[in-house]
Amino acid sequence: MIRGMSDTAEEERKLRYERRKAAYRSARRVLARSSVLSTLRERLARLENAHELYDLDETADLYGNGVVEALEDKVAGLLGTQAAAFFPTGTMAQQVALRCWAGRTGDPRVALHPLAHLEVHERHAFTQVSGLRPVRLNSAPRQPTAAEIRDLDEPFGTLLLELPLRDAGFVLPSWEELDELVAAARERDAVVHFDGARLWETTVHFGRPLKEIAALADSVYVSFYKSLDGFGGAALAGPTTLVDEAKAWRHRYGGQVFQQFPTALSALAGLERELPRLPGYVRHARVVAAALREGFAAAGVPWARVHPEQPHTNEFQVWLPYDADAVAEAAVRQAEETGTLLFARPWDAPGPGLAVTEIDVRAAGLEWTPEDVKAAVAEFVARVRRGADG
């Protein structure tokens, strides 16, 4: 009986996932148009004006030269580092970075938050594949403090800071706090590595340009698809000696790919077209967040949490006091019935009667006024309540 109920619930979730995809594709209004559900034709259209980004009469890249090297130079220039290396994945880039630093410091221990991407989303690759060892900082869903780094009861060779810390709500320290975190690591003779998959989004919160942010770290990893909507890929930026060694390890890890020009061109497109827009997305995310809070209050929801209250990037969390399946169904029905998809991402259940999702504000979201957001919230809550009433 229990097994049958569980199977039925799983089938309902799979069906809702397919409905959500279809609703997303057909919705007239969303807060972000993600490339995740785009067709091949739509993705390839991203390269229609590639001739504006790079000389297409040059020969295609071979094992990391040509357009890939041009992309590496572009990233190094944006981050103000001596060099950068292109990697097919961020998982590989960060493993290589941490492995190189472990060899240089003589210490395989990496101090990091237990909610860091390396700990939660990579099947512990950096320990299982690269032989590194985590030293976990605080267990709270927030960035660590300088005091916590100074008070760690064992040494470590590298401090890894995820900026922003996605699973805690895309949260960032203040600029002063970040400076203190780095100083605390230096006091312990450790190097500092930034997991900057979304570092591109942080300039508004820090009030500093990318070069000044990256300058605090010894090495920085950035993604080309999370913020910039590229086809994939990542870069590791830092001193020339580190990057040269990283390229040797890239080959050993299987990252010396024969040709990567479509991904490299899409990354150049993201740096040219999407990067300048990110500050505007961050600022409008704060408008959307405030309207969400007001909308849920006006709808009489017992409590609703937007976290952070003022988003640090263009992504943030929304917490509601409802069953996760119920709000997921209401979100899909709203899109199917009205053409407005307010909550495009999945809902998780952190506890009984709790639901949490992520909000992403991009170009499509700039069209939403606060009144639009509040009206969508009212329609959404009405559907949640109708569902609860059966």
TrEMBL record:
The Aromatic amino acid beta-eliminating lyase/threonine aldolase domain extends over 40-293
Which keywords does this chain's UniProt record carry?
Pyridoxal phosphate
Q: What InterPro entries does its record include? A: ArAA_b-elim_lyase/Thr_aldolase, PyrdxlP-dep_Trfase, PyrdxlP-dep_Trfase_major, PyrdxlP-dep_Trfase_small
Q: What are the BP-aspect GO terms?
A: glycine biosynthetic process; L-threonine catabolic process
For this protein, the record's Gene3D superfamilies field holds: Aspartate Aminotransferase, domain 1, Type I PLP-dependent aspartate aminotransferase-like (Major domain)
Instruction: List the Pfam families.
Output: Beta_elim_lyase
For this record, the Gene Ontology CC terms, alphabetical, are:
cytosol
Q: Which PANTHER family match?
A: L-THREONINE ALDOLASE (PTHR48097:SF9), L-THREONINE ALDOLASE-RELATED (PTHR48097)
Q: Which family does it belong to?
A: Belongs to the threonine aldolase family.
According to UniProt, the name of this protein is Threonine aldolase
**What is the native source organism of this protein?**
Streptomyces cadmiisoli
Lineage of origin:
Bacteria, Bacillati, Actinomycetota, Actinomycetes, Kitasatosporales
